[in-house]
Every structure is written in C-alpha cells, then in structure tokens.
Amino acid sequence: MPIKLNPLILISPLTYFIDLLNTGLGEVSAFGAFGLIIDFGFLLIFGFGFLLLAFILHALTLQKRFKG
Q1: Contact assessment for residue 50 and residue 57, using Cβ atoms and an 8 Å cutoff
Q2: pLDDT of the residue at 39
Q3: Could you tell me if 28 and 38 are in contact, meaning their C-beta atoms sit under 8 angstroms apart?
Q4: Which end of the chain, N or C, is more open, meaning fewer C-beta atoms within 10 Å of its C-beta?
C-alpha cells in the first residue's frame, strides 16, 4: 500500500502505522532513510498528546462531578 506524501496525510497516526507495516514487509519507507525513526517519533508524539488530552478531560470531568 503506497503512501503518497501530502500535507493532509501527515496529521494522521495511521500513516505512520502503515509505513511501519510496509517497512516491516520489506518495502522502502515513504520518509526516506530515517523513516523508522520518524515513524516511531511521531507515534510517540501522538501517544503523549492523546494521553495529555485524556488527563485534561478527566480532570474537567472530575471537577464537574464533585462540584458543590
């Protein structure tokens, strides 16, 4: 499954999962020589971003639940 690089596709974590899968199957990474580093780096960034968002939403929910 080839990945066509355009700005819209770069904001999806699925792009980096697919690139990891393609690289694991023996194809060339869509991001060049440092493709695996870029894939893992962006997946870590997305993971920490979603974790931070979950903490923020959880704190807001607790504030509403135990208010007054």
Answers
A1: no
A2: 94
A3: no
A4: C
Question: Which phi and psi angles does 18 have, rounded to 5°?
Answer: -65, -40
**What is the C-alpha to C-alpha distance for residues 13 and 43, in angstroms, rounded to an integer?**
6
Name the residue among 34, 39, 33 with its Cα closest to residue 12: 39
Other Cβ atoms closer than 10 A to 11: 9
41-56 burial code (b ≥16 CB/10 A, e <16): ebeeeeeeeeeeeeee
pLDDT digits (tens, 9 = 90+) for 12-59: 899 999 999 999 999 999 888 999 999 999 999 999 999 999 999 999
Residue 34, C-beta contacts closer than 8 angstroms, at least 6 positions apart = none
Tokens at 51, concatenated: 């974790």
